[in-house]
Design goal:
The chain is an alpha+beta fold. The protein is built from four helices and 17 strands. The strands form six sheets. Strands 3, 4, 6 and 7 form a four-stranded antiparallel beta sheet that branches. The radius of gyration is 17 Å and the shape is globular. It starts with a strand and ends in a 12-residue tail after the last strand. It binds 2-amino-4-trifluoromethylsulfanyl-butyric acid and cobalt (II) ion (2 copies).
C-alpha cells in the first residue's frame, strides 16, 4: 500500500516520487563532485561555501540550509575534530582563521531543493598530504555508510542498519557518534524517523518500499561524545580527536534501495 504514513510516522512515497529525489540527489552530488578540485591547502572554508552558493544558483535550484533555523550558509564544513555543522567562514576551532591547512580532513555537507524535493549528501575531502590514520578514518566511515546501505531492504529494520554500521566501526576500534542521526526526507528536510547509526538487529521500525531517508554516520577516532560550541552549531569531539562523516539520501525499493546521491562523475573513491 502506498501514499500513506506508517504507524511509526514514516511517509511512504509513490513510485513517481523517486524521479524527484533522483534529480535532487544528482544536483547535490554534482556540487560535491565539482568542489573537490577547490579543496587544497590555503583555501578558506568561506570560499568553499561561496562556490557552493554559486553552483546552487547556476543549477537554478535552492539551498535548503540558507535560512534553516537561522543558519546562513549553503553548506556545513566540518574540519578535523568538528563532528558536524561546522560553519563556513567561521574560525576553525583552536585556530585563528577559516584557512584550510595541509593534512586537514573535512566534511562538506550540501542540501538542495529541486522542484520541492530535498537532496542531502556529504563527503570527506583531504587537503594536501593526508596522514594515514586520517585516511583510515575516512575509509572506515565510508565503508560503514555503505554497509548500512547494504542492510536496507523491505522487511529489515532501522536497527539492522544501525547494527551494520556500529559493528563495522567498532571492529575497527573507532566509535559511532550517538548525538546526531540520519532522518527521513522527501518534500521536507527532516522527517521521521531518526536513523540511528548504532543499534540491535531486528529493533526499530520495519523498512518498507517507498521510504526516503538519509544515512549519515559520524565516526570518531576516539570517544563518541560530542559538544556544541558557543555558536550553537559547531559540534566537536569532546576528546578533541578527529571525526569523519559521509551521507547519502536513499529510497527503499522492492528489493533493496536506490542511492539518490551517488557521485554522477564516479568521483568518489574506494567504493
Ligand atoms: N545537511 C545536514 C543534515 O545532514 C543538516 C544541516 S542543517 C544546517 O541533516 F542548518 F546546519 F545547515
Ligand atoms: Co542529513
Ligand atoms: Co546533510
Amino acid at each position: 500500500m502506498r501514499g500513506r504514513i506508517t504507524k511509526d510516522g514514516i511517509r511512504i512515497y509513490e513510485d513517481a516520487d523517486f524521479a524527484g529525489m533522483r534529480e535532487a540527489g544528482r544536483v547535490a552530488a554534482m556540487i560535491l563532485d565539482d568542489i573537490g578540485a577547490l579543496v587544497v591547502p590555503g583555501v578558506r572554508t568561506g570560499e568553499l561555501d561561496d562556490f557552493i552558493r554559486s553552483e546552487v544558483e547556476r543549477h537554478g535550484v535552492t539551498s535548503a540550509t540558507i535560512g534553516y533555523k537561522g543558519y546562513q550558509h549553503a553548506s556545513c564544513i566540518s574540519v578535523n575534530q568538528v563532528v558536524c555543522h561546522g560553519i563556513p567562514g567561521a574560525k576553525i576551532p583552536k585556530r585563528g582563521s577559516d584557512v584550510i591547512l595541509d593534512a586537514d580532513i573535512l566534511n562538506i555537507d550540501v542540501t538542495v531543493i529541486v522542484e520541492g524535493w530535498f537532496g542531502d549528501t556529504s563527503r570527506m575531502y583531504a587537503a594536501g598530504n593526508v596522514k594515514p590514520f586520517r585516511q583510515r578514518l575516512i575509509d572506515v566511515t565510508h565503508e560503514a555508510l555503505m554497509r548500512g546501505i547494504a542492510a536496507v531492504k523491505p522487511g529489515n529494520t532501522f536497527g539492522d542498519i544501525g547494527h551494520a554500521i556500529q559493528t563495522f566501526v567498532e571492529a575497527n576500534r573507532m566509535s559511532v557518534v550517538r548525538d546526531f542521526c540520519g532522518h527521513g526526507l522527501g518534500r521536507v528536510f527532516h522527517a521521521p524517523p531518526n536513523v540511528l547509526h548504532y543499534g540491535r538487529p531486528g529493533t526499530g521500525a520495519v523498512l518498507e518500499e517507498g521510504m526516503f531517508f538519509t544515512i549519515e554516520p559520524m565516526v570518531n577516532l576516539g570517544r563518541p561524545e560530542t559538544k556544541v560550541l558557543a555558536d550553537d552549531w559547531t559540534a566537536v569531539t569532546r576528546d578533541d580527536r578527529d571525526s569523519a562523516q559521509f551521507e547519502h539520501s536513499i529510497g527503499v525499493t522492492a528489493t533493496g534501495c536506490e542511492i539518490f546521491t551517488l557521485s554522477p562523475g564516479g568521483k568518489f573513491f574506494r567504493p
